[in-house]
Amino acid sequence: DLKSPGSGGVLTTLRGHVERLGLDISHFYNNRDAKLRSDRPLPFAKVSSPGEKSGLTTAAKWFLDRGYAVSIPLEPTYYDLVAESDYGLVKVQVKTTCSRGRNGRYVVKLVRAIYDSSAEPNAGGKYRHVPYDPGMIDYFFVVVEGGGLYLIPFGVVEGKQAIVLDYKYAAFAV
């Protein structure tokens, strides 16, 4: 401990002030007392609700359950996974939604963010949203809040920035 004249040490004095002020210092600790404590969450603790899965996990499981091989890229790409289909390898972009339009139907954004150094910065920085180009992906796998799943060929929605999951897309529900 660091000692100061006439006191039990700087740390003791500091702890006294912290207690008097009622400050939370549970996030401060040194290596001597770095043991697991039930009141401190682990750095990799699960934060989602029980049973809740990511869109990527849901999509990968869907393909795997049907006997297809799935690969997930290690580097950033335009697609989220590659599935070995009956037609060869296909690039799949996974989208999730919990947004509903005025009519109560789910809305899915089909855009990607690109950096634009000439753009005027806004809340999203200098990024703007643009649709995917042909050849970047082959399918959109859409995961809807509550469990709805869609596998939509890129050609069906090419150039669109968003779609409403209505009767036009019912044939792509899986």
Describe this structure in words.
The chain is α+β, with helices and mostly antiparallel strands and 174 residues long. It is built from three helices and nine strands. It has helices at residues 10-21, 55-65, 154-157; strands at 70-71, 81-85, 88-97, 107-109, 111-115, 127-131, 139-144, 149-153, 162-164.
Averaged pLDDT, please? 82
N-to-C span: 64 Å
Helix content: 10-25%
Largest sheet geometry:
5 strands, mixed
Backbone CA Rg: 25 Å
Unreliable segments of 5+ consecutive residues? none
Helix segment tally: 3
The fraction of residues in strands falls at 25-35%
Shape: elongated
Strand pairing plus helix content: what structural class? alpha+beta
Order of helices and strands: HHEEEEEEEEHE
User: In total, how many beta strands?
Assistant: 9
Record the strand order, biggest sheet: 1-2-3-7-8
Question: What are the SSEs and their pairings?
Answer:
Blueprint: H1 10-21, H2 55-65, E1 70-71, E2 81-85, E3 88-97, E4 107-109, E5 111-115, E6 127-131, E7 139-144, E8 149-153, H3 154-157, E9 162-164
Parallel strand pairs: 3-7
Antiparallel strand pairs: 1-2, 2-3, 4-9, 5-6, 7-8
